[in-house]
Write a structure and sequence with these properties.
The protein is an alpha+beta fold. The chain is built from four helices and five strands. The protein has a domain of 139 residues: Butyryl-CoA Dehydrogenase, subunit A, domain 3 (Up-down Bundle), CATH 1.20.140.150. This is Claudin. Pfam families: PMP22_Claudin (PF00822).
């Protein structure tokens, strides 16, 4: 019973993390223009994401432009894109596999061992998806931090962490945690020993009655 609850909790957490990875990938706020300096115009806010860059005016109007060419993008951005998309795809398959292995599902009820293995395999896939998202967001955040502290970077072109990075970190953590719960929900097999055979009482080997 406890393993079933742990399995359900892991599936819910991992699924929420997977949804968060999708949201983080689609958000344009992966980095935002920094205003940590003097004489910086704050009439507009500049955001950059994996797919587009946006400018928000002080009036609240937002204008976004999709990146024109994939080949013109820097390698770090392309790698981040690839890792996030891979995390989404792997997470989708993980949901399908883990759902089949859930105890509350009717699939594969006749073979509990395979059903249990499906749930564990789904948890492993969730862990892989979470690691891919965590690596992508961490590498991108490290690149933003390096450019911010670089003395040769002009003050008016420095960027800080955007909200999409924090969403991505939280989503990756949930996916990893949920995948770990799914892997740990596998009940340990109890060692089965052969039934002890009862030995008949020795009536009397010699056939003589002892007084």
């Amino acid at each position: 019973m406890a393993s079933g609850a742990l399995q359900l909790l892991g599936f819910v957490l991992a699924s929420l993390g997977w949804i968060g990875i999708i949201i983080s990938t689609a958000m344009p706020q992966w980095k935002m223009a920094s205003y940590a300096g003097d004489n910086i115009i704050t009439a507009q806010a500049v955001y950059e994401g994996l797919w587009m860059s946006c400018v928000m005016q002080s009036t609240g109007q937002i204008q976004c432009k999709v990146y024109d060419s994939l080949l013109k993008l820097e390698s770090m951005l392309q790698a981040t894109r690839a890792l996030m998309v891979a995390a989404i795809v792997v997470g989708l398959f993980a949901i399908i596999v883990a759902a089949i292995g859930m105890k509350c599902m009717k699939c594969m009820e006749d073979d509990q061992v395979k059903k249990m293995r499906m749930a564990v395999f789904g948890g492993v896939m969730f862990i892989v998806a979470g690691l891919a998202a965590l690596v992508a967001t961490s590498l991108y955040g490290n690149r933003v931090a390096q450019a911010f502290y670089d003395a040769y970077t002009p003050v008016n072109t420095r960027y800080e962490f955007g909200s999409a990075l924090f969403v991505g970190w939280a989503a990756a953590s949930l996916t990893l945690l949920g995948g770990a719960f799914l892997c740990c929900s596998c009940p340990r097999r109890e060692t089965s020993y052969p039934a002890t055979r009862g030995y008949p009482k020795n009536a009397s080997s010699t056939g003589k009655d002892y007084v």
